[in-house]
């Protein structure tokens, strides 16, 4: 859940903030969104769509390290916290997950399979400048907003029928 994600990430950010006098250790946040997911709900129904998201969540957990924090964020969006990972390292993890999702069909009922794809946005904590006395909740929300901006750029590429390289 979203609150469970916050409850797990906030103590890590507090430790990171305290340990380096405002300079953040590397950690990255990824927001992922299922591409064109409304079409799956429209074609197969919301229960089937939810099963597909559950399968996707399982795939995400299988690609996460024990110290990572994956969570369903809202609707067809997932969020992943990767402590100790730079943006470049996280991009590689996200691309592997994206490829794993794209290359398999998810069985949502006996004999019923759906194909899924994902877009993602990545931000690294070291890119986050801390203001005086800024709390971890504000840091987290700002990281999510920045990752969402990157995600929306990618979604525009998908809607335009092209999937380019991510930077």
Task: Please give a structural write-up.
By secondary structure, this protein is of the alpha+beta class. The protein contains 5 helices and 6 strands. The chain has helices at residues 2-19, 37-44, 46-63, 87-102, 136-159, and strands at 27-34, 69-74, 77-83, 105-109, 112-115, 118-124. A hairpin with a 2-residue loop joins β2 (69-74) and β3. The longest helix has 24 residues, at 136-159.
Would you kindly provide a brief summary of this structure?
The chain has five helices and six strands, in the order H-E-H-H-E-E-H-E-E-E-H. The chain has helices at 2-19, 37-44, 46-63, 87-102, 136-159; strands at 27-34, 69-74, 77-83, 105-109, 112-115, 118-124.
Sheet-strand content, in percent, reads 15-25%
Shape: elongated
The N- and C-terminal alpha carbons lie at a distance of: 28 Å
Please tell me the overall pLDDT.
83
| Order of strands in the sheet with most strands | 2-3-1-6
Main attributes of the structure:
6 strands; elongated; 4-stranded antiparallel β-sheet; alpha+beta; 5 helices; disordered C terminus; 50% helix; 167 residues
Layout of helices and strands:
Blueprint: H1 2-19, E1 27-34, H2 37-44, H3 46-63, E2 69-74, E3 77-83, H4 87-102, E4 105-109, E5 112-115, E6 118-124, H5 136-159
Antiparallel strand pairs: 1-3, 1-6, 2-3, 4-5
Helix pairs in contact: 1-5, 2-3, 3-4
């Amino acid at each position: 859940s979203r609150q469970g994600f916050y409850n797990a990430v906030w103590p890590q950010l507090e430790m990171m903030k305290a340990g380096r006098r405002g300079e953040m250790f590397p950690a990255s946040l990824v927001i992922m969104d299922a591409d064109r997911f409304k079409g799956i709900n429209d074609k197969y129904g919301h229960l089937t769509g939810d099963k597909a998201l559950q399968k996707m969540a399982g795939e995400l957990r299988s690609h996460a390290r024990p110290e990572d924090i994956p969570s369903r964020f809202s609707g067809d969006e997932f969020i992943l916290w990767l402590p100790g990972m730079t943006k470049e390292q996280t991009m590689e993890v996200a691309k592997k997950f994206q490829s794993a999702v794209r290359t398999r069909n998810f069985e949502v009922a006996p004999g019923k399979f759906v194909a899924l794809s994902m877009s993602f946005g990545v931000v690294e904590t070291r890119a986050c400048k801390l203001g005086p006395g800024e709390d971890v909740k504000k840091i987290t929300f700002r990281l999510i907003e920045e990752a969402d901006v990157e995600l929306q750029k990618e979604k525009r590429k998908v809607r335009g029928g092209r999937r380019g390289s991510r930077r």
